Amino acid sequence: MTQNFPDNTLYEMDNLDVLRGMNSHTIDLIATDPPFNTKRNRSGSAGQYVDNWKWGDTGVLPDQWKWNEVHPKWLEEIKDNHTALYHAIDAVKHCQGEDTAAFLCFLSVRLIEMHRILKDTGSIYLHCDHTANAYIRMCMDAIFGYKHFRNEITWERHTGNNNAKRYSNVADTLLYYTKGRSTTWNQQYGPLSKDKLKEYNRSDPDGRQWTTGDLTAPNSTNMFEWKGTTPTTRGWAFTYEQLEQMYAAGRIITDKEGRPFKRGRKMYLDESKGVPLKNIWTDIKRIGNTSDERTGSPDQKPLKLYERIIKASSNEGDLVLDPFCGCATTIIAANNLNRRWIGIDRRKDARYHIITRLMGITKEERKRLEKYATNTTWLDKQTQPYEMHYQTEPPTRTDTEKTTSPTLAHVYPVETEHQLSHAEMHTLLTDQFGIQCWGCNFIPPDKRYLHLDHIIPKTDGGTNDIDNRALLCQPCNTKKSNKMSLNALRRQNKQEGYTQPNPPIDLKAALKWTREHLIQTIRSTTHQLNLNTH
């Protein structure tokens, strides 16, 4: 898809507006450290958030993720279009509480857009901690698909102090998902352990240390004879030509008859890449308070941590996005590794962090310059030597038939005055057609026993409008799920003997009434007044 924003751009605004203005399939990697649900530093609702931290701030501010601030239409759209996500958030609401569910609403609406803008070969790493990592993973499973989950990486950020009543929390979590099955992946390596280093206990006359390695490999089909030896259970780990080259270079150890030992491969310490990384990272510690890397942000993560992520899941020239770029760790890591980047943050000093870190100045020098953190004149001047763009307006999508407004509503389309809420549709249908299940003709004690569902499932192209709505009892609602049409449900209920003897709802009459109601509602809205002239 065509990219509709310049490379190396910082957007100083709410990331939801920017994400919704970005064309689909344009980002190679998202590496981000969003707000943690830790009761400090930030406040927000499902739609917007405000970052209360500023340069030099050491105070602790309470979280304000509140369920009653979640827009009701947002929840309705989630229920209609992202059913699994809705149930995940609803489960958290009951298990962890409404405030955590509101936090997940705030994050999920952004993750939906992140999924859209990722390329099919793209990946996302989301940094979180123990307070909500399990719940965030549920939401990401719903959005990205559980089959696209790759790893839950544990990063040991520090050794911690003993706690008398529980184990100390010393680690954060990185949730790693891919957009598709085929994705960019470059194996990364960690340092050799002390025990592994001890294995390099031999040396050449020039002092190069080495150890021995196996010349065969499991499941190998290379069963040919070489130097008088043919493997019996495991095949050669190399081709005939590779073995000849290694032998000529003195890299294979043989017995007196010239036959290679099974572990006859010479492996030099100075050529070792290290140990392939697993999903527990203990070799990168958090930034010390005296480090030049330290910017003052309470949430800052080490540059090496994000450099590892970027090396693993992107190539040079790829586009890396951090929607919560804060003190610019992801941005600087991407820039150092010759990747293009996009950063988004509401902080007024986000550009200051990017510029001063691009300049490579020390912590002491940054302290001297902190008075310029929000000085736009100074920031503009410092930006000039770098290939960096600064924006306070979101991009405008151009990947649809017509240009999409950058000021999209938080979840639902821009022109939705004609759309009724779930409660309004439920009341209209019960008032017009009575309190009765449209699937089995059951008449419950009152309308609270009826659920609003679709006549044609969303998966088959059904809409959320009232002319595609039906009222179902709980058993019918569960059986129909999001895969069965209402007519198919009726046929199955009849075959299984669940249809009640009450007169059924006339679907043709119901469709005619609801469609006329929808048309009249659309014609009465401001942006559709021109329909009345036709």
Provide structural commentary.
It is a single chain. The protein has 534 residues and is of the alpha/beta class. The protein folds into 3 domains: 9-189 and 277-391, Vaccinia Virus protein VP39 (Rossmann fold), CATH 3.40.50.150; 192-273, no CATH class; 422-533, DNA Binding (I), subunit A. It contains 16 helices and 21 strands. The protein has helices at 15-21, 72-81, 83-95, 98-117, 133-144, 194-198, 240-248, 303-313, 329-336, 350-359, 363-369, 376-383, 422-433, 474-480, 486-496, 507-524, and strands at 9-12, 27-32, 42-44, 49-51, 118-128, 149-156, 171-178, 189-190, 202-203, 209-213, 216-217, 235-236, 252-254, 260-268, 275-276, 280-281, 319-322, 340-345, 389-391, 450-454, 469-473. The strands form 6 sheets. The chain has a 9-stranded mixed sheet, sandwiched between helices.
How do the helices and strands line up, and which of them pair or pack?
Blueprint: E1 9-12, H1 15-21, E2 27-32, E3 42-44, E4 49-51, H2 72-81, H3 83-95, H4 98-117, E5 118-128, H5 133-144, E6 149-156, E7 171-178, E8 189-190, H6 194-198, E9 202-203, E10 209-213, E11 216-217, E12 235-236, H7 240-248, E13 252-254, E14 260-268, E15 275-276, E16 280-281, H8 303-313, E17 319-322, H9 329-336, E18 340-345, H10 350-359, H11 363-369, H12 376-383, E19 389-391, H13 422-433, E20 450-454, E21 469-473, H14 474-480, H15 486-496, H16 507-524
Parallel strand pairs: 1-18, 1-19, 2-5, 2-17, 6-16, 17-18
Antiparallel strand pairs: 3-4, 5-7, 6-7, 8-15, 9-10, 10-14, 11-12, 13-14, 20-21
